[in-house]
């Protein structure tokens, strides 16, 4: 390989460096996300994915080795933004019901997965175009694990969202029951508005 890669080869290297940084950012961020999660199944899924993510870092190191390059990160602004937004949402939703916070966490985790899937898909296409079939195969293993994680998070997220919706409906019904006696005794229009919420 030439000392300085150019064109598509250089683009592949930069994509790998970006993914390497993204995965390393995740290994640091996920423990905080797990701590904020109250749903056991969601917490377990994210914990499992943290271990898988550590494997993704090692796999990328193998890819760099195959390319006879030192494993090096290129700051991934995309992942930094997603994780920053996720941390902000967790902070904002801390006062909400557990199911609402967990729904926000599941949604944020899926954003991460989709971002990674897009990056790995692009890197696989570049590797194939350059004839790096072994590298493409290695990256495909990771892509498949990201897809599996996304599917699992989607299922868990849907269940949590149903729970959050049921809890908010029960809360609204309880509020309405409190307002109904006031309506019967000639309550104001303001009470009617509250009951409609």
List the defining traits of the structure above.
disordered C terminus, 84% helix, mainly alpha, 6 helices, 0% strand
Protein described:
The protein is mainly α and 197 residues long. It has helices at 7-36, 40-66, 77-93, 98-129, 133-184, 189-196. The longest helix is centred in the C-terminal third of the chain and has 52 residues, at 133-184. It is elongated, with a radius of gyration of 23 Å.
How far apart, in Å, are the first and last alpha carbons? 66 Å
The helix-strand sequence is: HHHHHH
Structural class: mainly alpha
- Helicity range: over 70%
* Main pleated-sheet profile: none
Gist of the model:
The protein has helices at residues 7-36, 40-66, 77-93, 98-129, 133-184, 189-196.
List strands and helices in order, with pairings.
Elements: H1 7-36, H2 40-66, H3 77-93, H4 98-129, H5 133-184, H6 189-196
Helix pairs in contact: 1-2, 1-3, 1-4, 2-5, 3-4, 4-5, 5-6
